[in-house]
Write a structure and sequence with these properties.
Blueprint lengths: L1 H14 L21 E10 L3 E6 L4 E5 L5 E7 L10 E8 L16 E10 L9 E4 L6 E12 L2 E5 L7 E5 L6 E6 L10 E8 L5 E9 L8
Parallel strand pairs: 3-13, 4-13, 6-10, 6-11
Antiparallel strand pairs: 1-2, 1-12, 2-3, 4-11, 5-6, 5-8, 7-8, 8-9, 9-10, 12-13
């Protein structure tokens, strides 16, 4: 199981690359040019080696599956599960140039509003460590790291050794909090809501590299 977890971690970490170090008040998230396309939607049909996903804009996308596919499960969690040292991931957007985090430190930090918060299992600790641009909204960013400080529902996600390498994110009460863990192909079934990374092949179909699947009514908000 440990070896399997390491394989998953290496695969996904290579896909969602970590960002470089930037000052707290001038964070410029990076964006890799070699990342897979991101596909969000609901599985409407499954075949032996592929699935069909209906995306939010109504398109039907075929994803081919192979033995190298990494599957992750998202289940319901609580904000109380995020405490000092917990490894987490969040998509957020900076609120503005004059809106700062309530967390006190030597330098001011911009405050971000979270769209989601993932509590990541210990065996996946270190996955996608860093801070980068994201495509959920035009200004959104993705941050992975460990909880370094908290003030109410604002958490500091730290991804490096210096004070500047952290993102302060407000997690409103209506924002979903999920637990991310290793999954398996049994979760791949019609009706499941997914977030997938896939590469387009010459045939026009996509080959899925990883899939995050929501369980128990969880809809991935990545």
């Amino acid at each position: 199981m440990i070896l399997q977890g390491l394989r998953y971690t290496v695969v996904i970490a290579a896909l969602i690359l970590c960002a470089t170090c930037v000052p707290a008040l001038a964070q410029k998230p990076t964006q890799s040019q070699d990342q897979p396309d991101r596909i969000r939607g609901e599985i409407v049909k499954t075949e032996a080696a592929s699935i069909f996903v209906k995306t939010g804009d109504g398109k039907l996308v075929r994803l081919r599956l192979n033995d190298e596919l990494s599957v992750f499960n998202l289940t319901k969690a609580s904000y109380a599960d995020a405490y000092f040292g917990t490894y987490v991931g969040a998509v957020s957007v900076r609120l503005g140039d004059n809106i700062y985090s309530p967390i006190i430190r030597d330098s001011l930090s911009w405050l971000h509003r979270g769209f989601e918060l993932r509590i990541i299992d210990q065996e996946l600790r270190g996955i996608a460590l860093g801070h980068q641009n994201w495509d959920l909204t035009p200004d959104s960013v993705m941050t992975h790291g460990w909880v370094d400080d908290q003030e109410g529902r604002v958490i500091s996600i730290k991804y490096g050794p210096t004070e500047e390498e952290e993102t302060d994110v407000d997690i409103p009460r209506d924002v979903p909090v999920m637990r991310m863990s290793l999954g398996d192909r049994k979760l791949i079934r019609p009706g499941a809501r997914i977030f997938a990374g896939a590469r387009k092949e010459s045939s026009g179909d996509y080959r899925a590299v990883f899939i995050l699947i929501g369980s128990d009514g969880v809809v991935p908000r990545l």
